Amino acid sequence: MENISTNSILFALTLTMFAGLSTGIGSLIALFAKKTNTTFLSVSLGFSAGVMIYVSMIEIFPKAKESLEGYCSSPGMAHFYTILAFFFGMGIIALIDKLVPEYENPHEIKSVEAMVPKNRDKNLMRMGMMSALAIAIHNFPEGIATFTAALKDPYLGIGITIAIAIHNIPEGIAVSVPIYYATGSRKKAFWYSFLSGLSEPVGAILAFLVLMPFLNDLVFGLIFASVAGIMVFISFDELLPTSEKYGKHHLSIYGLIAGMMVMAISLVLFE
User: Measured between alpha carbons, how far is 89 from 237 in angstroms, rounded to an integer?
Assistant: First the structure.
């Protein structure tokens, strides 16, 4: 693999930080909106899923296979290892989801209206803190995905960053609303939500430091295939179900198709 420049690393890290800290956008929506804009969230989450699915299957998976072909005895063997890494990525994110209790899972749908209690409840603070912790755990592999993609292909990294940033908006709502109603402090609610996204760039930095001495086309191909698996799983397990719960079925599908179209056009334009 070619030498990686400092500018490429900084660019990839900047994108990863933007994607992770977009939980703050969700926090601002939750704290200052009078009602949840379900149409916007439904279409946006569908759009994010469309971007992730399209780019994973059309762009990332083939690039992973191409990287592995130089290290395998045949194209068929490279394809086999790409498939293994793809489903390994799915297994990792599925395991993380399994370890998060369902009632504290930040991907369970939340709305501003439904989370307004009549009396201040200290248990809400625990809910918000556990949601922040769960989001931090979820965002760790997402940070690796964003960083790795941006390192290999800046334009691809931008598309994935936008998708994951949209994906993180409902997570900001899940953290900030219960903390706000437990403490009465918008400032605390915002900062806890904002900081929960820091695990994304932290995950990227740690992964890069650990893997940097071994970073070649073989390692990169395996990581890239795993990233594709992670993003496809997130799309089907989190984004599309949440999109449908926030709005009508067709809004979710329209957003999905729009995301695929935008990603397809951008890949052609910047090829």
Answer: 14
Are the beta carbons of 58 and 267 closer than 8 angstroms? Answer: yes
Residue 228's domain spans which residues? Answer: 6-32+70-239
User: Angle, nearest 10°, between helix axes 154-183 and 6-21?
Assistant: 30
**Residue showing tokens 């395998």:** 72
Short-list 190, 83, 209, CA closest to 144 = 209
Q: How far apart are CA 36 and CA 113, in angstroms?
A: 7
Give the number of domains in the chain: 1
Q: Is residue 122 part of a domain?
A: yes
Segment 187-211, tens digit of pLDDT: 888 888 888 888 888 888 887 788 7
pLDDT of residue 196: 80
The single-letter code of the amino acid at 190 is F
Residue 40 lies in a domain: no
pTM: 0.76
Q: Kindly report, residue by residue over 151-167, the tens digit of the pLDDT.
A: 878 888 888 888 888 87
* Distance of alpha carbon 224 from alpha carbon 68, whole angstroms: 10
Interatomic CA distance for residues 175 and 127, integer angstroms: 8
The arithmetic mean of pLDDT across residues 45-71, rounded, is: 89
Distance from C-alpha of 210 to C-alpha of 80, rounded to nearest angstrom: 26
* Type of residue numbered 130: M
d(CA 212, CA 139): 21
The residue among 17, 237, 254, 251 whose CA lies nearest residue 105 is: 237
Both structure tokens of 86: 């793809």
Band the pLDDT of 103: cuts 50, 70, 90: very low
In a domain, 153, yes or no: yes
Residue 18 lies in a domain: yes
